[in-house]
Amino acid sequence: MENPLLLFPQLNISASKDKSYYKVMKSTIKEEPHKASKPGAKQKRNRLSLLLQKSEFHEGDHLGKPGNLTKAASVSPEEAVKWGESFDKLLSEKAGLDAFTKFLKTEFSEENIEFWIACEDYKKSKTAHELLPKAKAIYETFIQKDAPKEVNLDFQTKEATSQNIQQPIITTFDAAQNTVYRLMEQDSYPRFLRSDPYLNLVKGRNPSRPTLRRRSRSFTVNDFQGVRPDFTVW
Questions:
Q1: Residues 71/57, Cβ–Cβ less than 8 Å
Q2: Which range is least confidently modeled, 2-6, 208-212, 222-226?
Q3: What CA–CA distance (Å, rounded) separates 20 from 17?
């Protein structure tokens, strides 16, 4: 007679090994370790996707950081020095214009240089048919009240520009452009020349690689060996 296998002692229920019930229980027990391994694989996949997301975030994190005005390889120190001769000299060169535009973005005043660039493009219009849509776009973007990139204009200049917008001519924005130009020349331009990124260009340093500071010396346990405490301070 076979020895019965006690399955549930508290209920006094037993079954023989050759019973189908035992076979089902045995197969279930074998499958449990296999099922337990699935959460581990899922966790690994989740960790991998998280690492990929972090790497993608850090790869794009350096973009748009203040200080990266332009690549040092594209601007020589001699060229950067010329930017300090006059504001007009700075804006007349593409690299200088790009560097100044990025600097204004760090000060949240890029609407001034964007308005100036839009006016320069407007004056290059070859036909009167091109003037009206461009004039309307400039007015709605930079000049009208509560415009998304409204520039700081005095009342008279703003009113004169608004009245001429219905029948624009090549000089419609000249007064407003000159006002913004003087504002940048007297206010933003001096700060640009004193900024660290510009000074790095003049000195031939790469603005994307700031100068490393020397770390201060850290104390270790060996520094305190042999030092006897002075309990008189207590």
A1: no
A2: 208-212
A3: 8
Q: Looking at the predicted structure, is the pLDDT value of residue 110 above 50? A: yes
Whole-angstrom CA distances from 101 to 86, 104, 164 are 16, 5, 28
Q: Between the CA of residue 66 and those of 5, 26, 28, 104, what are the distances in Å?
A: 76, 66, 62, 10
Distance CA(151)–CA(113), nearest Å, equals 10
Contact 140, 147 (CB under 8 A): yes
Q: Which residues pair with 8 in a beta bridge?
A: 13
- Name the amino acid, one letter, at 115: F
What's the rounded mean pLDDT across residues 47-71?
Answer: 42
Please answer whether residues 119 and 177 qualify as being in contact, where contact means their C-beta atoms are separated by less than 8 angstroms: yes
Question: Mean pLDDT throughout 103-120?
Answer: 97
The structure's pTM equals 0.58
Helices marked H in 93-127 — which ranges?
94-106, 110-122
Which H helix or E strand runs over 67? none
